[in-house]
Each structure stands twice: as structure tokens, then as C-alpha cells.
């Protein structure tokens, strides 16, 4: 099973600041990595797939990069609605697995 | 626009079987893969498994022996059965759509909380 380790666990920032979240895989997942955003009481929402492609309707301030074992999600300028928990997820190997999440808080 | 809605008992006794249904509207369930994902309160996400209308399923090894997933094409619904539940199975259970076998989860239901307790 591929283990995804996200860091930091919590990121404390202010609106307008840049956020950089990390996801490290225990073995290569090539580019088969997705990012999801989850707000309290809501289901996760797909942001990025295959490491760097924005899902439909996702604002351009969200970007993803990386390949192999190291990936990052960048939010260029935080909006109030961006404060949430973010999860990475790999689809390279069975079983499909998620990282433990990074909480972006004000 | 696709909509997914989970339903089922909110309380299940230990050792019994958890049964959930996900009703899909806006698309035919025969056109996509369908996943079950759960999230214990205050914790992260765990993929349970997925299924396709041809009967093909893939499950997480940690739950495989206890999971049965199926589709009812006449009702456009998918179902999950998890047997021999314990308190560790208490979670919000989500159904989610994938475009293909291992594609990302691009649409999710709102989730339903299932508590395992006597």
C-alpha cells in the first residue's frame, strides 16, 4: 500500500498570503496524484488531478506540481473560502489511498 | 448535473451488517465507476472500494473480507454492505463517481454518518 504523508499538518496563514502544501508518497506514483478540498460538514471537492490539472470550475489560484514521490499544492493568494482541509490521493496502485490532510487555518 | 445521495440507518449494532444505498440522478450508473469512501469523525479519508455495472469490483484489502458492493441499474442505485461492524467502523460514508477504474473522484454525495453502538 502506498502511504501518502502530507505536511505540514496545519498551516496558519492570512487572506492574501500564498499557501504551499506538500504530499510525499512512499513510492513513485508517477503523476497519478489528486488534491481535494474539504470544508466542515461538506464532502471533499476535487481540485487537481494528475498532479497539475485543475478540475472543472476550480479557480486559477490553485495549482499543483510534482511527479514521482514529491508533490505540492499551491494557493497563490488565499481567499476567505480557501480555509479548509486539503487531502492528496494517489491512483497509481491498489488500494487507492489518501494522505492524512493539511488544515489551512486563519 | 449529477447528484448522489446516500441513505441508510444511522445506527448499527456491533457485529451486525451496515447497509447503505446511494441514489444517483442526472447520469446513468452504467456509464461510470462508483466508489465508497469513509471518514471517521475528525479523521481522514479511507477508500473502501469501487464497482462497475459489469460486476467488476475492487476493494481495499483491509476491508475486503467484509465488503459487498453492488449496483441496481433499474433504480440507478449503488449499495454497500459491511459485515461484522465494530466501533471502528463509525464514520461518515460517501459515495463518489469516477470516470474510469482508477480516475479521481469527481463527484461526491453529501455523506451519511453511521454510528456503531449497542
What does this structure look like?
The complex is a heterodimer of chains A (106) and B (118). Chain A is mostly beta strands and 106 residues long. Helices cover 0% and strands 48% of the residues of chain A. Chain A has strands spanning 4-7, 10-12, 19-25, 33-38, 45-49, 53-54, 62-67, 70-75, 85-90, 97-98, 102-105. In chain A, strands 2, 4, 5, 6, 9, 10 and 11 form a seven-stranded mixed sheet that branches. A four-stranded antiparallel sheet of chain A has the order 1-3-8-7, with no helix packed on it. In chain A, strand 7 (62-67) and strand 8 (70-75) form a beta hairpin. In chain B, strands 2, 4, 5, 6, 9, 10 and 11 form a seven-stranded mixed sheet that branches. The radius of gyration of chain B is 13 Å and the shape is globular. Chain A binds chain B through residues 1, 32, 34, 36, 42-46, 49, 55-56, 87, 89, 91, 94-101, and chain B through 44-47, 58-62, 94, 96, 102-106, 108-111.
Task: Spell out the key features of this protein.
heterodimer; A: 106 residues; mainly beta; 4-stranded antiparallel beta sheet; 11 strands; globular; B: 118 residues; 0% helix
Summarize the structure.
Chain A is mainly β and 106 residues long.
Principal-axes geometry of chain A comes out as globular
Per DSSP E runs of 2 or more residues, the count of β-strands of chain A stands at 11
Radius of gyration of chain B: 13 Å
Shape of chain B: globular
The end-to-end distance of chain A, rounded to whole angstroms, is 34 Å
Judged by helices, strands and strand pairing, the structural class of chain A is: mainly beta
DSSP strand content of chain B? over 45%
Low-pLDDT segments, ≥5 res of chain A: none
Distance between the termini of chain B: 39 Å
What percentage of residues of chain A falls in helices of 4 or more residues?
A: under 10%
Radius of gyration of chain A: 13 Å
The topology string of helices and strands of chain B comes to EEEEEEEEEEE
Number of DSSP helices of chain B?
0
Amino acid at each position: 500500500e502506498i502511504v501518502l504523508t502530507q505536511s505540514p499538518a496545519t498551516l496558519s496563514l492570512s487572506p492574501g498570503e500564498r499557501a504551499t502544501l506538500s504530499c510525499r508518497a512512499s513510492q513513485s506514483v508517477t503523476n497519478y496524484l489528486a488534491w481535494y478540498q474539504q470544508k466542515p460538514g461538506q464532502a471533499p471537492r476535487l481540485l487537481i488531478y494528475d498532479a497539475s490539472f485543475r478540475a472543472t470550475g476550480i479557480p486559477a489560484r490553485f495549482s499543483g506540481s510534482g511527479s514521482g514521490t514529491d508533490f505540492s499544492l499551491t494557493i497563490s493568494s488565499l481567499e476567505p473560502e480557501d480555509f479548509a482541509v486539503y487531502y492528496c490521493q494517489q491512483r497509481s496502485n491498489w488500494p487507492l489511498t489518501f494522505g492524512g490532510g493539511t488544515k489551512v487555518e486563519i | 448535473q449529477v447528484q448522489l445521495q446516500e441513505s441508510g440507518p444511522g445506527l448499527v449494532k456491533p457485529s451486525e451488517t451496515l447497509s447503505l444505498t446511494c441514489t444517483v440522478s442526472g447520469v446513468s450508473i452504467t456509464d461510470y465507476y462508483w466508489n465508497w469512501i469513509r471518514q471517521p469523525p475528525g479523521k481522514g479519508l479511507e477508500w473502501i472500494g469501487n464497482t462497475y455495472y459489469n460486476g467488476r469490483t475492487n476493494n481495499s484489502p483491509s476491508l475486503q473480507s467484509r465488503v459487498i458492493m453492488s449496483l441496481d441499474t433499474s433504480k440507478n442505485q449503488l449499495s454497500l454492505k459491511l459485515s461484522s461492524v465494530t466501533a471502528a467502523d463509525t464514520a461518515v460514508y460517501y459515495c463518489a463517481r469516477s470516470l474510469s477504474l482508477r480516475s479521481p473522484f469527481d463527484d461526491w454525495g453529501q455523506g451519511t454518518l453511521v454510528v456503531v453502538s449497542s
